[in-house]
Amino acid sequence: MKRVLIWVLSLWSIVGIGWSRSEDGLQELKAKDRLLSFLEKDAVSPGANSLMIPLTLIQGAASKGAVCLDGTPPGYHLDRGFGSGSNSWLIQLEGGGWCNTVRSCVFRKTTRRGSSKFMEKRLNFTGILSNKAEENPDFYNWNRVKLRYCDGASFAGEGQNEANQLYFRGQRIWSAAMEELMAKGMQNAEQALLSGCSAGGLASILHCDEFKDLFPSTTKVKCLSDAGVFLDATNVAGGHTLRDMYRGVVTLQGVQKNLPNTCTSQMDPTSCFFPQNLIANIQTPLFLLNAAYDAWQVQESLIPSSADPHGFWRDCKMDHSHCNSSQMLFLQDFRNQMLSAINGFSMSNQNGFFINSCFAHCQSERQDTWYANDSPRIGNKAIAASVGDWFFDRTATKAIDCPYPCDNTCHNLIFK
């Protein structure tokens, strides 16, 4: 049965028209933060028997300049593997958008996305992080790590803004975290999977080959990007909202020096922050898990409030079932762009993908979408089974759904 998840939003946080005052700008940033929280985590509450894993701060990270936006140390949550998974490691890079201006980064410092002071002391491990075989059949007994995201540039920035006491140290956070985890046993890994959701999904693409290079050639290493295929798409007003944002991220946070030269030698740095221009050149086996109508991109890239001042798209944006035929054609074109973006990537036998025709975001971390009786499927195969088949080379996994509305297994997100 089709499952729908509903989020209740106050009108100002959806429409957001005419932010002119300082307070209004702050409210807009808060609204965006709440949207991220809902899409990535808060839509599914921890159950009574949830696995809650404590936060570990990386001691000594500050001496290496590996700090969050506000200068606090970065952190992670580690649940040790057992049995046959004792020497296998799964690293999940947390998502949570980006900050592209001094103002948005200063705001971010006041949240868990920019400071370890505000991070949860314990985090719920579900989906691909679950320790139960019935919830996570292939990775349940691995060493599972959630690396917290507090830099605002997909773990790729390098620089600082002294006037506003902002530290752009995403790349250093990545390096410090990997160094610590290697010392805690990851150096002995027989197999390893680098995963991530949303901005963490982009990070898993950016750092995929770096991750592979940490290990000897005998270690089986692959990467998984969940909801990380952010497209350089045109919004409903003909603008390029995401490109404009990415330009700010890359410029402000000094990301250019950490982007792959296979891309920057041919394209501008902003283009090289888009996965579509990176994935074909990644040497390590990579799996793309993405909703064809990614809910965050629909909300923030395709139909941002600034591109729809008269609210023509508002009902469609909040509930895809309210889209008229021309609006649905626009969304179908976005799906076509996504399929086109992975065309070259799909030619490699080592790569895999699961592109379902859902209005969703981050399907690996949520138990209901990762592996459950009613979880999304393509060809009657759940996401967890598809990823596992690909990682362990049981069978090739290159699954693309037929266009909306053919899939009745989606857990679509509805905004009210």
Task: Describe the protein in words.
The chain has 416 residues and is α/β, with parallel strands linked by helices. 29% of the residues lie in helices and 18% in strands. It contains 13 helices and 16 strands. The strands form four sheets. The protein has a ten-stranded mixed sheet with strand order 5-2-3-6-4-9-10-11-12-15. A two-stranded parallel sheet has the order 1-16. Strands 7-8 form a two-stranded antiparallel ribbon. A hairpin with a 2-residue loop joins strand 13 (377-378) and strand 14. Mean pLDDT is 93; it is low at 8-21.
The helix-and-strand class reads alpha/beta
Characterize the quaternary organization of these chains: single chain
Kindly state the number of beta strands.
16
Biggest sheet architecture: 10 strands, mixed
- Kindly report the spatial arrangement of strands forming the biggest sheet: 5-2-3-6-4-9-10-11-12-15
Q: Give the CATH class.
A: Alpha Beta
* CATH structural fold name: Rossmann fold
Radius of gyration: 20 Å
Mean pLDDT: 93
According to CATH, the homologous superfamily is Alpha/Beta hydrolase fold, catalytic domain
- The CATH architecture comes to 3-Layer(aba) Sandwich
